[in-house]
């Protein structure tokens, strides 16, 4: 095997553990120095390749690379940029080939979700169709847990843990005060298309009456009457009501509730408001309860301080496996997580063809949501619980986590022409 | 000294460490069993005393009491209820005396902020003015850090740490994505009257250009032009802008910005919206940047999982000191934290008269805010940094923190008449 350099990039929304995959990949590539030369990281994902903005990771110390394992965010920058179809958009692909050739890149590692795996799949076609051989390996990552084939996606377990821990804690606060103050608390979490993250909040409950009392899923059309009845019965039975709402909740005709909130604004501010305050308003107007609401937004997906140990380890292992697959001669594949045992939870790394995951969205199974539509079933609990297991604390200094800032030294450009992103 | 029972109650907004004070108090009272009989906790603060709803903490095991140290929320329930002046409202005070007499209560421990210390101070006057001797000790607690005399208030350090950690983490996320996605991130934090919590977010920055780039304080009138200029220069200089906004930010004529957001609503929904989405809207309309916003609300004050070790220890020690002061014969006082050394940080417990802290609000010093009005000074940094130092993790099981649920066994009522809260 001729020794070639590798390209690695992070794509789509980042997570608390995508850098753990980068760590696994770079550490492993350094061990395979007979097959893999330097690992060049794309600055801001695939855009880094198109713009020939490459970062020379060989200039980073072993300690710095090791620290990626406990550092959230995307150390090389990420992007929301999707390659178009090869047909009719040859320019982008030919540019990629020129950059790869110029820097002797023979491996393409792309770390992201379903859209990003589509990009990886498209790049894998260059070899056959444009005559430039490049080994393409996808690396799974998404907090949304909606990647197909793999049992779960690195990034999800840590958000799930953040949400479950936060709900357990906030519920104790609300319960303490409910007699004379707030009775209803609403937490809005991420999940525009699928309720995986909202579902994970259900892990916070240990027995009947525990929070969350209501989970609102994108999969279940919002029915105001049923919702209000449930809020009311929760307050009557338990003294308070904790609601976890997925940002993607829709009404019975398919409109996002968050958008309805905006529609009611006199100025037509499309993004003002949001789901949590909208739900709070309904509760106040119809039931008169004092409420509070929180929107965890980026806090939930960057919260490395409360990452799941299982998630961190899986993120590392898929990065490592990507290199091992490449060195073994595999191409156009993505490492996946396979659950080999439920109790005790055991998992191993396998792989699947990129075409099986590109642009495929894994839905929350119907049997994960209770008949009533406001909670999770035992099946969901069994699936979700192992994914948040274990703690993996970052190091601290002066009370704050120590996250690494890489030097990110650019690779000298070799191409004369500049490329304009379209 | 005749042995008497003690009454302990939690008051006002709870925190991640108010139960650590309860732990310190109950554990210490158990050591002084020659002076103090049982510790009766008020169910929901002073309301528990008025309604004769007492909890017998002697029925809790040592292990359960020890676990209070790492459990957030208020284990006995809290309340927002302020005793009126003795003049013209003798009923409430005479009721308290009847309850205290019925249960042989000679010690009154009240754990809360400035309003609660006012209640403790009023109760301390019963002895002289209504002829029932009761030892009254306040115990400081407030996430707002606005209690007078004490160097800081237990509860604040943990919120401060939560906010600083969250900003450091979210900033890495935003920075990763800024080229093609979100450029401006807004986190709304608590602090209606004083910017202590918002100020603490400034600890997240290590060097120029680090987040938070803008802190909005209640102390500084909001100037839209200056704000937008600062957002813009941050995006130009660093590629992104992280804003931490105190919920109590007001405009130049003293209106809460969060209320202005509500005023713009077509339906006059007074609580709809909130500050973070309001600021986001300004940024979008005037600068066109893509934004995200979060509101941490109760999550910040219940986040025991990321509590400050210094805060937990101080919370425990003020609970312990309250008992020691009472046993020593002190009355109408509150333990305080005294900073005896800045570098290295050292502190000890002292005390002050309740009248010095009742209804007094400690403001953020002017020299803690930069001239420009959007950041904290070195003086603020020096004051704040030690308060978030050290981690104090709760135990975990199956990936979730194990928080104690006390049995909270009620003390049998002895009074015939019921009391109606007014």
UniProtKB/TrEMBL annotation, chains A, B:
Keywords: Cytoplasm, Glycolysis, Kinase, Magnesium, Metal-binding, Transferase
Annotated site location: Important for catalytic activity and substrate specificity: 115
Pathway the protein takes part in: Carbohydrate degradation; glycolysis; D-glyceraldehyde 3-phosphate and glycerone phosphate from D-glucose: step 3/4
A GO term from the CC aspect: cytoplasm
Binding site for substrate: 142-144, 190-192, 247, 298-301
Family: Belongs to the phosphofructokinase type A (PFKA) family. PPi-dependent PFK group II subfamily. Clade 'B2' sub-subfamily.
Subunit structure: Homodimer.
Role noted for this protein: Catalyzes the phosphorylation of D-fructose 6-phosphate, the first committing step of glycolysis. Uses inorganic phosphate (PPi) as phosphoryl donor instead of ATP like common ATP-dependent phosphofructokinases (ATP-PFKs), which renders the reaction reversible, and can thus function both in glycolysis and gluconeogenesis. Consistently, PPi-PFK can replace the enzymes of both the forward (ATP-PFK) and reverse (fructose-bisphosphatase (FBPase)) reactions.
Stated name of the protein: Pyrophosphate--fructose 6-phosphate 1-phosphotransferase
Gene name of this polypeptide: pfp
